[in-house]
Write a structure and sequence with these properties.
Blueprint (H helix, E strand, L loop, with lengths): L6 E4 L5 H11 L5 E4 L1 H7 L1 H9 L3 E8 L3 H14 L3 E5 L4 H18 L4 E5 L7 H7 L5 H14 L4 E3 L5 H8 L4 E4 L19 H6 L4 E4 L1 H4 L4 H12 L1
Parallel strand pairs: 1-2, 1-8, 2-3, 3-4, 4-5, 5-6, 6-7, 7-8
Helix pairs in contact: 4-5, 7-8
Bound molecules: cytidine-5'-monophosphate.
């Protein structure tokens, strides 16, 4: 896959009509889109069907975290919707990951298809102090490493991590273990928004990431088409 095929645009908007408008403006250069909690809560599974009708790939970013059976069942429902990537919180524990992986493998036996299972390590909004407050004794970096290893050992396909953690994850879990990195700001984007540790798309790919997630620099651009063109020029 070339780099452009590994760009995922985050559809963080209020409704399905706006999401589909953005998809149409991003195509054909961009063909992978992320649906998160806001949009999915507003529109539900019908939106996934609309996106699939647009012939694009979908990352369902609902970050499931619950008892193993509940998470596994939810992930199977996501798989039935035909999404290409789905994620769970690795802090839900190894058993939760393992149960989900087993259920996905059974699903694959029957359907010959399954979404990539990606683990969330530590949210990029949390720093060392926040982890201490929850009662975690390790630093964010150490936690990312531990949770990535937990994900890998229990059969997850990869992790969501900051672009600054790509190397740690690849070095500890191997280069085939997928990294999906948000916190991306192209040079043409004027603001960092609320992202703290950012990187340009080119640099994130240079560091070896598999997928980048980019939202507002595209979806809030004055001209989405122009923003996509600029991004495509950098990545071709
Ligand atoms: O607009 P922006 O490019 O900051 O969007 C990044 C997307 O990636 C958002 O949907 C955000 O929820 C998501 N994300 C993140 N950091 C994480 C996990 C997900 O920014 N650690």
């Amino acid at each position: 896959m070339n780099r452009l095929e590994r760009v995922i645009v985050a559809l963080d908007v209020e409704n399905g009509d706006r999401a589909i408008e953005i998809v149409k403006e991003c195509k054909p250069e961009i063909s992978y889109f992320k649906v998160g909690k806001q949009l999915f809560t507003a529109e539900g599974p019908a939106l996934i069907k609309r996106l699939k009708d647009e012939n694009v790939r979908v990352f369902l970013d609902l970050k499931y975290h619950d008892i193993p059976n509940t998470v596994a069942n939810a992930v199977i429902e996501a798989a039935k919707l035909g999404v290409d990537m789905v994620n769970i919180h690795l802090s839900g524990g190894g058993k939760m990951v393992k149960t989900t992986v087993e259920r996905l493998n059974e699903f694959y036996q029957i359907n010959n298809f399954k979404p990539l299972l990606i683990g969330v390590t530590v949210l990029t909004s949390l720093g060392d102090e926040d982890l201490k407050e929850i009662g975690f004794v390790h630093s964010t970096k150490e936690m990312v490493k531990r949770l990535a290893i937990l994900g890998k050992n229990n059969g997850a396909d990869g992790v969501v991590c900051s672009p600054h953690e790509i190397e740690i994850v690849k070095n500890t879990c191997g280069k085939d273990f997928i990294t999906v990195t948000p916190g991306i700001r192209p040079n043409f984007a004027l603001t960092k928004d609320d992202q703290k540790r950012i990187m340009t798309p080119g640099m994130a790919f240079e560091r070896g990431t598999d997928y980048i997630v980019i939202g507002r620099p595209i979806t809030r651009a004055e001209s989405i088409k122009e923003a996509v063109e600029k991004l495509a020029d950098k990545l071709r």
